[in-house]
């Protein structure tokens, strides 16, 4: 921290050359070692070499991330003048590709390392945009023109630069602030921050909290914000107000400097690694660096190169039933033929809502059948991306081949299909991608849900030719 209570930007700028030099050195060393053909080496040499390459890989990645951060953090945090950032607080109970419905909104202002909360609002307050905001036609074909109509639907697409540009345009058409960046978070990020800061006291007035906890902790904040609030508070306005109050108090705790630096860094690092924090900048040099990192959330470019897969979920219920859905994702690689690989992406979903969900849960949670989905049921649009230039082949649902919609997004094949689950029902989709030319280790991005990521990401499977 600096003397003015903000972040010491001079220290970050001063460390940047050394971080960049170290990152370049480790990256070069890792590259040279990786280029050595180990098959002809004796085991006594090959084994230590493989171990060194494996050990250097995470060091290389972390140093590269640190070097890139040191290059853009000063300007992002207002070293060259004040910056306004639109924050989308995503509601995972009504899932969207990048996390959830952007129900709560805020504007943060960064100047000389200090951050202040300027404005709070909600998606419902912005209303519908007619005519719709202009969005890439290819993506509206895949995700519908709702991408440009409602800020709660801008993230039906998993491509965060598109999400951010649309959200920026919508906010600026209703408000006077000029937005120079967009940040997305979810309530699990708030839980990680509370784990670092300790319990948070919230409003205790029974008339406004109506049975909600007076103290929020890392253990209860997600359930409180994504489930209990709909049971104990009636109407969008009171729910939005409670959400805004909690978000404001957590922000005040973070910006006050009361959280120890290492704990705060751990909370933010964990949130980023889980895909729960996404950042976009309207400034091209900064955005070019962000696109090289998963933090930027781009479905194309350096962060999505190699054997990159993506599994994304969009709510089709029109309610808050995703709090009750448990999901898992597994990637299976099969034998190579003629230089190509075949991958299967498996997605399992279970509706854990109680059998009497239609009557025991509020209409705001079930949707009351208003959008064609019976109360208590969950409808999900599952979207799966394969690596660039591969092909999506077939899809099976619970072992039976089924039809699906096929698209192309930035040279990546996209398969989509809808599932509908009654309370207690499960289903498993398996989508096959063929002619995968990339031979790098596969990586996969998955929509962050209410679940811990270790419950969602199943161990990959590698099947030999036999």
Structural class: alpha+beta
Instruction: Please give the largest β-sheet.
Output: 6 strands, mixed
Strands, total number: 18
The CATH topology of the largest domain turns out to be: Aminopeptidase
Largest sheet: spatial strand order: 13-12-16-10-9-18
Please provide a written account of the structure.
Helix 1 packs antiparallel against helix 2 (43-76), helix 2 (43-76) runs antiparallel to helix 11 and helix 6 (187-197) packs antiparallel against helix 10 (261-273). The chain has 3 domains: 9-72; 83-273, Aminopeptidase, CATH 3.40.630; 305-462, no CATH class. It has a 6-stranded mixed sheet, with no helix packed on it. Strands 3-2-1-4-7 form a 5-stranded mixed sheet, sandwiched between helices. It has 466 residues and is an alpha+beta fold. The radius of gyration is 23 Å and the shape is globular. A hairpin with a 2-residue loop joins strand 12 and strand 13. It is built from 14 helices and 18 strands. The protein is 35% helix and 27% strand.
Short description:
By secondary structure, this protein is of the alpha+beta class. It is built from 14 helices and 18 strands.
Write the layout of secondary structure elements.
Elements: H1 9-34, H2 43-76, E1 83-91, E2 101-111, E3 114-122, H3 123-126, H4 137-143, H5 160-174, E4 181-185, H6 187-197, E5 200-201, H7 206-209, E6 215-216, H8 221-232, H9 236-255, H10 261-273, E7 278-281, H11 284-290, E8 308-315, E9 325-337, E10 340-351, H12 357-360, H13 363-366, E11 378-385, E12 391-397, E13 400-402, E14 405-409, E15 412-421, E16 426-436, E17 443-446, H14 453-456, E18 461-462
Helix pairs in contact: 1-2, 2-11, 6-8, 6-9, 6-10
């Amino acid at each position: 921290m600096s003397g003015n209570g903000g972040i010491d930007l001079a220290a970050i700028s001063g460390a940047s050359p050394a971080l960049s030099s170290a990152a370049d050195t480790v990256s070069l060393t890792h590259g040279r070692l990786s280029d050595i053909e180990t098959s002809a080496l004796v085991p006594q040499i090959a084994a230590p070499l493989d171990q060194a390459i494996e050990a250097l890989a995470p060091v290389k990645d972390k140093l590269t991330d640190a070097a890139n951060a040191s290059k853009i953090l000063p300007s992002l945090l207002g070293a060259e003048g004040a910056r306004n950032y639109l924050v989308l607080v995503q509601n995972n109970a009504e899932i969207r590709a990048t996390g959830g419905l952007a129900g709560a909104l805020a504007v943060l202002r960064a100047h000389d390392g200090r951050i202040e909360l300027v404005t709070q609002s909600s998606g419902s307050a912005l209303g519908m945009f007619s005519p719709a905001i202009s969005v890439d036609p290819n993506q509206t074909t895949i995700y519908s023109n709702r991408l440009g109509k409602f800020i709660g639907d801008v993230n039906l697409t998993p491509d965060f630069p598109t999400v951010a540009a649309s959200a920026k345009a919508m906010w600026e058409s209703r408000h006077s602030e000029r937005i120079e960046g967009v940040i997305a978070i979810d309530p699990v990020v708030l839980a990680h921050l509370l784990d670092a800061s300790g319990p948070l006291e919230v409003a205790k007035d029974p008339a406004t909290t109506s049975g909600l906890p007076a103290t929020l902790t890392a253990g209860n904040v997600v359930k409180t914000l994504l489930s209990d609030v709909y049971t104990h508070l009636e109407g969008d306005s009171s729910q939005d107000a409670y959400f805004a109050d909690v978000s404001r108090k957590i922000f005040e705790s973070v910006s006050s400097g009361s959280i120890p630096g290492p704990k705060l860094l751990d909370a933010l690092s964990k949130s980023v690694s889980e895909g729960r924090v996404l950042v976009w900048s309207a400034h091209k040099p900064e955005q070019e660096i962000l696109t090289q990192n998963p933090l930027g959330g781009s479905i194309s470019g350096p962060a999505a190169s190699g054997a990159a897969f993506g599994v994304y979920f969009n709510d089709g219920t029109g309610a808050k039933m995703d709090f009750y859905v448990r999901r898992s994702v597994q990637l299976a690689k099969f034998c190579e033929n003629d230089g190509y690989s075949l991958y299967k992406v498996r997605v399992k979903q279970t509706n854990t809502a109680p059998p009497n969900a239609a009557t025991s849960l509020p209409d705001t949670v079930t949707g009351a059948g208003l959008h064609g989905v019976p109360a208590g049921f969950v409808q999900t649009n599952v979207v799966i991306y394969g690596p660039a230039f591969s092909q999506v082949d077939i899809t099976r649902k619970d072992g039976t081949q089924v039809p699906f919609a096929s698209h192309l997004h930035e040279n990546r094949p996209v398969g989509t299909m809808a599932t509908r689950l009654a309370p207690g029902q499960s289903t498993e989709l398996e989508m096959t991608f063929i002619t995968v030319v990339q031979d790098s280790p596969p990586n996969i991005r998955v929509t962050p849900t209410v679940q811990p990521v270790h419950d969602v990401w199943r161990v990959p499977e590698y099947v030999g030719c036999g």
